[in-house]
Amino acid sequence: MRHYELKKFLEAKYKEWHELVPQLISGDMKKLAALIDAHHRREKMMASLRSRCVSGSTLLHTASFFGAIPVIKTLLSEGIDVNILDYKGATPLHRAKDAATVELLLEAGSNIDCEDHDGNTPLHVKCYGESGEPTDLECIEKMLMKEAPLNIRNNRDLMPIHCCAMQGRVDAIQALLFFDTEGSIKQNLEMENKKTPPSLLHLSVANDFLDCAKWLAGNKFEFKEKETDLLVHKILLEEVPCANRVETVRFLLQNDASVNPTYPGGNTALHLTAGLSNSSDLLELLLSFDADVDAMNDDLCSPLFYATQSNNLYAASLLLNHGANVRSRNLQGLTAFDFISDFEEWIECGYFSEEIKARLKAYSLKHARDLVRAITKKVKNQPPMTSQLPLGRSQPALPAIGGGHVPLMLPPIRRGATS
Fold first, then answer.
1. What are the Cα distances from residue 398, in Å, to 382, 388, 402?
2. What sign does the dihedral 370-373-379-381 (CA atoms) show?
3. Which of 49, 164, 389, 415 could make an SS bond with 169 (beta carbons 3.0 to 4.6 A apart)?
4. Residue pLDDT, tens place only, 163-212
5. At CA 387, angle to CA 383 and CA 391, rounded to 5?
6. Integer Cα distance of 51 and 13 in angstroms
7. Which of 104-108, 156-160, 354-358, 372-376 has the lowest mean pLDDT?
8. Measured between alpha carbons, how far is residue 125 from residues 92, 109, 312, 392 in Å?
9. Which pairs from 340-345 meet CB under 8 Å and 24+ separation?
10. Residue 267, class by beta-carbon neighbours within 10 Å (0-12 exposed, 13-18 middle, 19+ buried)?
């Protein structure tokens, strides 16, 4: 073949596959079937059916993903290894999405124990599933009936049951436990390190699957030490997703989370909540569990300081109604009310008792008096005006006179200037 002919051949192949690959990725199985049938009939041969030509996946992986049973059978009849790996070390069984495809691949000898580059078996993948999609329970059960390993851990030290918890799949957890006739899953969980991996309950709460966490707790699964406190902290800092903060924190408190934890800087959960906007329901929850309203952080600030500093009027009223001390002072000698910027707003909001209103009015007068004193002191400390300097002492030069400005001192009138 001449150089020019080779160039044209390669350009045509590139154009063909450049158009074909996006169609295959989008699930056009008619195109895939036509491609494989042409090869099978020896009408248009491919160089290799084992090539990872579809964005790192082989044609068998692609057919398995979209459940193209006839294409899978044709590829297997062409001698393609059912355990061929894609660019992530996954087999077609890892990629299969429906029970019929899973069954076909297993009957063809697919390795149920095979691990990809992340250490995941096909059961790991199915237990995790697609985010927001229902559990593929039929696929999971077919794998379990073929004795898929229940306790293999991936590179993150997670078993398939951990993957279920991360996605809140109670039905998949129930299936795993049903097929675990020897109780090996719970035995493996009990033998885990105290810190890693996270408990099933932790994974469920951290991924905002509260119902799954409640089911696990009701079936004698437990948090690891300090996990509940860590989760409360992350929820308050909005570092984990939480559709219902109050119910989630309530669940954590009911499962031994401390209502008075100590965070960096000596802050408690009540400190953080008092400084948050739109968190009155969470504040009420903590107070209902007897959170310490006068807990001091490293700066000797109570939660009331955080409420006043963030102008959180309702939070301040809740703290005061639960007996917060208004007289306590921080390291600078200031009280919580010293951080209020608009006393009129606080007095007129309607949240406070007459006693607190009277105290707010007293603070307002005190701040006004302190302001007058500060201004007076500043005026007294001003340097004397130039016109008041003793005669005979050199006077500073006048600044240049700009348009529309009058000098502080007029220059002397020269003799004869008026004549």
1. 19, 15, 12
2. negative
3. 164
4. 999 999 999 999 999 999 999 999 999 999 888 899 999 999 999 999 99
5. 110
6. 15
7. 372-376
8. 12, 19, 46, 96
9. 340/308, 340/311, 341/311, 342/311, 343/367, 345/313
10. buried
Q: Which residues does 110 contact at the CB level (< 8 Å), separation at least 6?
A: 82, 83, 91, 92, 93, 122
The CA distance from 354 to 348, in Å, is: 11
End-to-end CA gap in the chain: 115
> Closest Cα to residue 248, out of 224, 232, 270?
232
Q: Write out the two tokens for 68.
A: 């193209």
Burial of 194 (0-12, 13-18, 19+ CB in 10 A): exposed
Q: Which residues of 83-103 are buried (b: 16+ CB within 10 A; e: fewer)?
A: ebbbeeebbbbbbbbbbebbb
78: nearest Cα among 138, 28, 35: 35
Which residue type is seen at 213? A
The closest alpha carbon to 172, from 210, 134, 209, 204, belongs to 134
> What is the Cα–Cα distance from 93 to 63, expressed in whole angstroms?
11
Residue (of 90, 130, 97, 126) closest to 111 by Cα position: 90
CB 253 within 8 A of CB 206: no
Q: Taking the CB of residue 334, how many other CB atoms lie within 10 A of it?
A: 13
Quickly count: other Cβ atoms within 10 Å of residue 371's Cβ.
Answer: 10
Q: How does pLDDT run across 229-272, given as a tens digit for each residue? A: 999 999 999 899 899 999 999 999 999 999 999 998 999 999 99
The amino acid present at 23, given as its one-letter code, is: Q
Alpha-carbon distances, residue 152 vs 31, 45, 88, 323 (angstroms):
38, 41, 18, 54
Three-class SS state of 20: helix
CB 118 within 8 A of CB 88: yes
